[in-house]
Amino acid sequence: MITIVIFTEVSREAQFDVTDNEKVYPLKKISEQRLEDRLLFHMVLDQKIPLYRDYWVVCPDGSRIPLKTGAVVRTKEFDELYAYDKRDLGATYSQERTIFKLWAPTASSVRLKLFTSSSTAFEYPMNRGEKGVWSADLEGDHHLHEYTFLVRVNHSVNEAVDPYAKGVTVNGTRGVIVDMNKTHPLGWEKTSVPPPIKKTDSIIYEVHVRDFSIHPLSGIQYKGKFMGFTESGTTAPGQFSTGLDYLSSLGITHVQILPVNDYGSIDELKADTEYNWGYDPLHFNVPEGSYATDPTDPVTRISEYKALIAALHNKGLRVIMDVVYNHVFIRETSDFEKIVPGYYFRFDYGGNPVNGTGVGNDTASERFMMRKFMLDSVLYWKNEYHVDGFRFDLMGIHDIDTMNLLFTELSREDPSIFLLGEGWKMDTWLDEDQKACIDSAVRMPGISFFNDRFRDHVKGNIFNEAQGGFINGNAGMLNGLFENVSGNSGDHRLFRTPGQSINYIECHDNHTLWDRLKILHPHEDEAILRRRHLLGTALALFSQGVPFIHAGQEFFRTKQGDGNSYRSGDLINRLDWERRAKFAADVQYIQELIRIRQHHPAFRMDHPADIAAHVSNLGELPDGVFGVFLKKVEEMDTWQDIVLLFNGHLEEKNVSLPEPGKWQVIAEDMEVKEDGLYETEARKLLLPPLGFTMAVQLSV
């Protein structure tokens, strides 16, 4: 259908035609629509015409108006006609030749612009092939040659960077052809990949590249860079470990890194003075240059990100990439929009961009070529960079079929691949039952979700600063707490398996837990706040599912009250390694709790049936006390019975133990020892205020 917008008086019977300068195609009006200042004629052709030619509408007075493709690219018929399933888009390099392929079905012509130097460029016509894919084959070794595509579409020529580019110039103004064999850091082929583990064996630690090392007392040489993750032997004041050694000492299994693909909100030439989290994607398949020691060298950013991954792998740590496929930095200037206008994004019936993400645009994962792009991209990161998982930003923007496809294809490459995401229900132009949100988790069994139910029960509603959670003394949060602590999985539950539940109380978004506690309890001293904080972390570590720790959470990270620090700079966001030294005893306490979780499978059950059989809510407890009983777990653990007690009150509480006999107290009053702090045959324990207590009976 062709819509003609008319701002002047015209006869209702006026004849309009379409021409390509060779033929004339009469238009037939099927309806009209009167708006305040305009008249819309909805018209059709009596025959199909190719979409990849330049057309004009011929008006009754003989004048001509360029005809542009619009909503037709968002139809099912368009997807069926032009869906291209081969995995050869982009620049395929060899020393003998480079083959370029670009999907641009509505383009009337495409030319390759190849730069043999920064100022010398040659243009080569590309040939249109099947499914609207344009290609060019250039002989010779083109390693490090820059290139763009000149795409004529909708009567204009747009210069675009290849969406599949593997390398880019500084600030991503051009794509770069790269011999990926020349990007491997020293020892890359010998890097030891950590063995596969179950999701419930995992503990995820989230960190931002720059935050990790930028503190002046981090002891790290490559501050704010990928290479900062590769340094061993670094220390903070007091000779406490920092950096890579510190990560290795924690007992975590996965390091989740905030976006590292090329993003648009930082000038890479001013990386030392600008800051951003990176949720503004520009080029999806290239590392961010501001984290490289030389952003002007296309190879350096690739090699150094690989070096980061290799360093973590060699320490037994897996890498999860935080990926942002739900939107682009600026839709109007994005390469997607320059190449196939209107296709990759969602629009409402009025042709307005949908803004469920809150940043001006939503990508359309339900369309074949956007879905394919996401799949090709994650497979590329997996196979070329050896990453171990992906965290999907605003995953509720994406559709269920896409997310399941990504898991299926990635798990073929790596059965232990870890996919997780933000399953919030987003206001986007997609049917509710198709959104990849947490309420539909049972339809995505391979995907894990940030469990906001767990978070809110433990620390309170993040959107209501006045509402506290269990650790704030809100006894009302006891209702529903056990459901989430026990994995919320099985028949008629939120998840199919406990491994889908990411149990977290803090992440990069919103206030840190320490800052939130300061808001809710402005008059409490530091010692009490620490107890509340550690109580929350203990809940996250000993709940069924997957514990998630925000970097610095273990030493009470503060952002000085900033609840949205995405561009607030180093002073607010950096990991404070002096604080790590100050709270060294608390860090050691968390390390010991992590070690106990990793040593005891009873805390890492993988099947809802096992949880139902062995995990129960301790009843008849004093007000404000929460308890979990792991009973008869000796077949899976060296312990027989385990009691977990969480006192959310400022007063001591007496609690009866569920079984008679000898009990070893493993954790009590901010002390922990796996082989026992002490042994007791008493039927009651005195719980310290705001304290976590663990008691066990050994297997006979």
Architecture overview:
Strand 3 and strand 4 (39-45) form a beta hairpin. By secondary structure, the chain is of the alpha+beta class. Helix 6 packs parallel to helix 7 (400-413) and helix 10 packs across helix 11. It folds into three domains: 2-67, Immunoglobulin-like; 199-326 and 365-602, TIM Barrel (Alpha-Beta Barrel), CATH 3.20.20.80; 613-698, Immunoglobulin-like. 21% of the residues lie in helices and 25% in strands. The longest helix has 18 residues, at 368-385. Strands 17-20-23-24-25-26-27-28 form an eight-stranded parallel beta barrel, surrounded by four helices. InterPro entries: GH (IPR017853), GH13_cat_dom (IPR006047), Glyco_hydro_13_N (IPR004193), Glyco_hydro_b (IPR013780), Ig-like_fold (IPR013783), Ig_E-set (IPR014756), pulA_all-beta (IPR049117), PulA_typeI (IPR011840).
Strand order of the largest sheet: 17-20-23-24-25-26-27-28
What is the domain total for the residues?
3
Largest sheet: 8 strands, parallel, barrel
The CATH superfamily name of the largest domain is Glycosidases
| Proportion of strand residues | 25-35%
Number of helices: 15
End-to-end C-alpha gap: 78 Å
CATH architecture of the largest domain: Alpha-Beta Barrel
Give the helix proportion (percent range): 10-25%
Which class best fits the helix and strand makeup? alpha+beta
**Low-confidence residue ranges:** none
Radius of gyration: 29 Å
CATH topology of the largest domain: TIM Barrel
What does the overall shape look like? elongated
CATH class of the largest domain: Alpha Beta
What is the oligomeric state here?
Answer: single chain
Number of strands: 37
Q: Which whole number gives the mean pLDDT?
A: 96
